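To close the section, here is one more complete example, presented without commentary so you can practise reading it yourself. The ligand is flavin mononucleotide.
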Amino acid sequence: METLEAIRKRCSLKARLSPRAIEPEKLWAVLDAARLAPSARNTQPWRFVVVQGAAVEPLVEAAFSEANTIAKRAPVIIVACANPEDDVTREGKAYYLYDVGSAVQNLLLAATDHGLVTHLIASFDEAEMKRLLHIPDDVRVVVVTPLAYPDAPSYDEAAAERLAQRSRLAREAVVFAGAWGRRLCTDADAPPLEDDD
Ligand SMILES: Cc1cc2nc3c(=O)[nH]c(=O)nc-3n(C[C@H](O)[C@H](O)[C@H](O)COP(=O)(O)O)c2cc1C
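Output:
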């Protein structure tokens, strides 16, 4: 899969998780993609707690919100953390969140590239998560994701319904020409989105 194809096909698939085990080399492929992300002054504040196998269900039951307990089907939960003190804060902007986000986006795209499904989750009990995983007091849990094979013969089949429902703001709502609020173009007169070859 090419990068742009992975960007287009990544979507949140907590309802399509298979319990099938993930090979260590695939797990490392997605974690190494995360490690290659850029960060402010190359601080690399991200830390990942990888929860696997029998440890997944008790963690999800205890720390995830009701709507996200479906994630307990996954063979792996990746818990993305950072100590804010390890990163730059500039004019009130705490860049550890940005940097962890970049790393996690790399992770999501690498997972998609390998045909694995993910689903970012921020709705969890951080204190309980930290207690169960022995995460130090000064470290924040930023976001978590299950990592799993899809419960379908292929990633494309598992993702089809979700991708068909995808909604995004129009180009003109988020892209401005030279000054805030000035239209660069409308969806109608812009070139079409690149399609798969
Ligand atoms: C920071 C963050 C936190 C999220 N937390 C949750 C969550 O707690 N539960 C959930 O079901 N989805 C969660 N999502 C998934 C979003 O709802 C999803 O990314 C969005 O609807 C776009 O859909 P897509 O990922 O399929 O493109 C979260 C996404 C992000 C980026």
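Once you have examined the tokens, check your reading against these statements. Strands lie at 17-18, 46-52, 76-82, 89-90, 93-94, 117-118, 140-150. The chain has a mean pLDDT of 94.
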